Amino acid sequence: MAAFRSHHRRRIALIILGLITVLTWTFAASRSQSANRVTSHEQFWSEFYPILMASEPYSNSPKRVSNAESVGFDPKNTDPLPNLLRLSREDVSAMRLSHSKFVDLIRHNPPSLHYQPHTRGLVSTAGGSYLPVLVISLRMLRRSGSTLPMEVFLASWDEYDGYVCQIVLPSLNAQCVVLSEILDAISDSRSIEKYQYKVFAMMFSSFEEILFLDADAFALEDPEILFISEPFTSKGLVTWPDFWRPTTSPLYYEIVSQDETAGKNKEKQENPATIRQSTESGELLLSKRTHTRTLLLAAYYNFYGPSHYYPLLSQGAAGEGDKETFIAAATALNEPFYQVSEPIRAVGRGTPDGFAGSTMVQYNPLEDYALTKKGEWRIRGASVPPPHPFFVHVNFPKFNPATVFHDNGPVVDEKGGYTRAWTAPDDVVEAFGGKKTEKAYWREILWTACALEVSMRQAVGSSLQKIGTINHWIDSLDAYILVFKSDNKDMLVKQREFDRSALAPVFVDNRQYRECNGRYRLVA
Known about the structure:
Signal peptide: 1-28
Keywords: Golgi apparatus, Signal, Transferase
Subcellular location: Golgi apparatus
Low-confidence stretches: 25-30, 259-269, 478-512, 520-524
Radius of gyration: 25 Å
Region (Disordered): 262-281
Family: Belongs to the MNN1/MNT family.
Number of helices: 18
Oligomer: single chain
Distance between the termini: 44 Å
């Protein structure tokens, strides 16, 4: 018996040593692959950064008189664009010269973007508290049947999580890319942050065709269909709308030599605020082959965004940041694009004072394009059935497993009790899958909480128990609930009398997380 125990201990030690070796090799291989990828992007960055610096807008930053109001889009509203920035004529001229110089440089001798031809994939940015949110979104996306690879860009190695980047994400056909590895190739280069990361992630991705998704956004259907259908096949750039009318400063049109009421392009002859909604950039579809220059100019707008172009393009309205830079760049270069016309819809819950939204729904661009091509614009009053929901953007508050039940969280009501987050408006909730989608989302929140409990070093224990409560509430609308069974089969169990203080059994569909699930599921 002693010999058997000794042999058993040696076997366990060898297994542990093997696991450590595998993880060490995986990390080294990941760094090696990242280094190979980074080298080509470093070459591009070493060519592009001097162009950015040579075209610096040598002018004062625009001064705000006040922030633009966030007014809902109405194509019948012909009020002129707000004019809330102050910039001297000398500064306008200086910015026009810098902008013209940059456009000339990228038109005549653009640096070559490095990507694998004939590839397509997903791109996102995350790090820190956004990593768990990203994992939830990616698992929801995989439920659609999508196998598209994803590249997740982190700002620096400080945001790198070995377990997430080497184990969790690769299991979902995703990998981490560290932006600082590329950007630091230029010593003493200007730092970028927050909204600026998005366009740089798109530039440094390895795919020719990309669908960018915010960390908190996911598709309800396999998004591969978007790449092989109109409007993308002819336009090369597809965006989705925000709630608001545009608030671009008239000064911007002067700077890019496109007065908003003059020019050859018909759109430049109309009031820009009546043409389309402002842009919500949580989802963006782009071909780097056809829209290299658009991407480079958008990068210019973002590089000098906080100091100059963000205020010029939004004037302090809701969501000021990168969101308007992509269409602005395409328009300035006269390159094609399509913005979905079907209005974005908010999803949330009713409150004593009205409505508390936490999520946005965006619509199918194929169906929208089929309507607008026939001149049927629902935004302008056409009485035709709407396109189907395609994206869900769970934007605020975030459903981070560690904080989802904190005060002011998405499932905490005005009295401090727990509530469902997606119950209104009825037509939108029903259209995007309602309770079925909500249940699936909570399953993935639980999966992620279990997967990252140790890795993220976050206190998610109490959250895991409360997730069981939320599942109980959702399932209470049915006659039955799902319970995990040791033989990995579902068992239907009669629902007991609904009790908000009780914890219901929850179902986890991955053998690896049974232990976690077992610790935190309590039978009511």
